């Protein structure tokens, strides 16, 4: 789980405009096996995004920043699930 945590932090830092370059695989390739072999579905994406929303809210991040972050995260969903 720690490895997944590191990947998530690196990716979120990248998509939200933080320092450093994301060096992971492209999103479609990174999730392909999970979709095909493990049954990853858009519902799972929505649950993870919901956890992010809850966390940002609990940390009292200003609403405009939460909306911006969630909007950016939402753009990754069609890429992951091959709807681009």
UniProtKB/TrEMBL annotation:
Single Gene Ontology MF annotation: oxygen binding
Keywords from the UniProt entry: Heme, Iron, Metal-binding, Transport
Highest taxon above the source species: Eukaryota
Gene3D superfamilies attached to this UniProt entry: Globins
Record has Zinc-finger as a keyword: no
SUPFAM superfamilies in the record: Globin-like (SSF46458)
A Pfam family that the UniProt record links to this protein: Bac_globin
Keyword Glycosyltransferase: no
The name this protein goes by in its record: Group 1 truncated hemoglobin
Organism of origin: Edaphochlamys debaryana
